[in-house]
Amino acid sequence: MQVFEGERVPLQKVKHVSVLRFVTEVNRQILLRKRPVGVPAVGDFEAASAAVSVPEAGEVLLKNLYLSIDPAIRGWMSDAKSYLPPIGIGEPIRSGTLSQVVESKAEGWPVGQVVQALAAWESYSVVSSQMLHGKVEPIKGIPLSTMLSVLGGTGLTAYFGLLEVGQPNAGETVLVSAAAGGVGSIVGQIAKIKGCRAVALTGSDKKCGWLTEKLGYDAAINYKTTDVRLALKEACPEGIDVFFDSVGGEILNTALTRLNYRGRVVVCGAISQINEAELPPGPSNYLQLLAKSARMEGFTTLDFASRYDEARAELARWIREGQIHYRDDIVEGLDEAPSHLLRLFSGEHRGKLLVKLTDAEGWE
Ligand SMILES: NC(=O)c1ccc[n+]([C@@H]2O[C@H](COP(=O)([O-])OP(=O)(O)OC[C@H]3O[C@@H](n4cnc5c(N)ncnc54)[C@H](OP(=O)(O)O)[C@@H]3O)[C@@H](O)[C@H]2O)c1
């Protein structure tokens, strides 16, 4: 099958595309075809090819190397009000990326520089320099993809969410939901580094085994097959001091019952609600916060943007010292991005979801 500039084709038909133009002239893209109802489906996306745009003053042309697959993308696909405008129908899917500058009209962003960016599911993006979230330099012994996982937004979310919002003290119990995912798999390890007991909630026995045997969690609960209330009693005999919650809903409600005096609930996300058209009722147990003089606090990683370098340096040190282990679940090729996104909701992955598009040029 051949695809020419400007032609749009349904995603299912694009498995074996051969593009007859020079690659630099064709921008392969995955567009939002329609807004999902409930859990997104592959049919909500469409593949297209378009001409590569030319940057204007203050902008750069990026070649995208890796795409970060994040729950936030599902939020941007809906037309609900959020901190960023919704992705328009027919527009490429917005995404965190690792990219390389191939043409620059923005001071301080030279050609060849590898960057973390907010760009899109496409081979090339033109973005303003405000969408560039930092320069990426090689770190000996650490693969480039890690710059978008543990040393990217995912690791930074775990780091600031736990340490700054959760403020764990040695000897305390830290409970983590979605513990085998990109963020959760790092949170428990930081909790262990800080001398805490780390307890995981996740959706399969295989994930429970990985968390306790490879990542050092003290206990792991399969919330799909266990009575979570009883399991928490056993796994957190001293109660819960910090609950790092990425799930919300019933799990949050249940965990609140075991919160300790002055406990902290870190509101990282609510993936159990992200596909719901109608918001479910709030946690009926919220008065536990009153009874325990506890607090529940949300955050976005952007709150800590001025401290990214400090966090990255510490996370990189922990990786080098073998104190943090991680797993990046990487698929290759732009067309794989929609089905990789769906894994966030089916839970068919461990660690961070990434899509590799191409290698960086000149990267050692
Ligand atoms: N605050 C911030 O700045 C910020 C930044 C980045 C991410 N986040 C949040 O962090 C959380 C984790 O993101 P991530 O990228 O690392 O994703 P992830 O944890 O790798 O993937 C999501 C996981 O959530 C679990 N899950 C999915 N649907 C669920 C449901 N209905 N009930 C319970 N568990 C469910 C699945 O694991 P199981 O097998 O365990 O069910 C799935 O693997 C998300 O809530 C995201 O919104 C927040």
Task: Give the SSE layout.
Blueprint: E1 8-10, E2 26-32, E3 45-51, E4 59-68, H1 71-77, E5 94-104, E6 114-120, E7 124-128, E8 132-136, H2 153-166, E9 173-176, H3 184-193, E10 197-202, H4 205-213, E11 219-222, H5 228-235, E12 240-245, H6 249-256, E13 259-267, H7 288-291, E14 295-298, H8 308-320, E15 328-332, H9 337-346, E16 352-356
Parallel strand pairs: 9-10, 9-12, 10-11, 12-13, 13-14, 15-16
Antiparallel strand pairs: 1-3, 2-3, 4-5, 4-7, 4-16, 5-6, 6-8
Helix pairs in contact: 2-3, 2-8
The chain binds NADP nicotinamide-adenine-dinucleotide phosphate.
NADP nicotinamide-adenine-dinucleotide phosphate binds at residues 70-71, 153-154, 157, 178, 180-184, 202-204, 207, 246-247, 268-269, 271-272, 299-301, 344-345, 347, 349.
Number of strands: 16
SSE pattern: EEEEHEEEEHEHEHEHEHEHEHEHE
Total domain units? 2
Tally of separate helices: 9
Largest sheet: 7 strands, mixed
Fraction of helical residues:
10-25%
In CATH terms, what is the fold-level topology of the largest domain? Quinone Oxidoreductase, Chain A, domain 1
CATH class bucket of the largest domain: Alpha Beta
Q: Beta fraction of the residues?
A: 25-35%
Small molecules bound: NADP nicotinamide-adenine-dinucleotide phosphate
Low-confidence stretches: 1-23
Spatial gap, N to C terminus: 35 Å
Please state the structural category: alpha/beta
Mean pLDDT: 92
Radius of gyration: 21 Å
What is the 3D shape? globular
The CATH architecture of the largest domain can be named as Alpha-Beta Complex
Instruction: Give the CATH H-level superfamily of the largest domain.
Output: Medium-chain alcohol dehydrogenases, catalytic domain
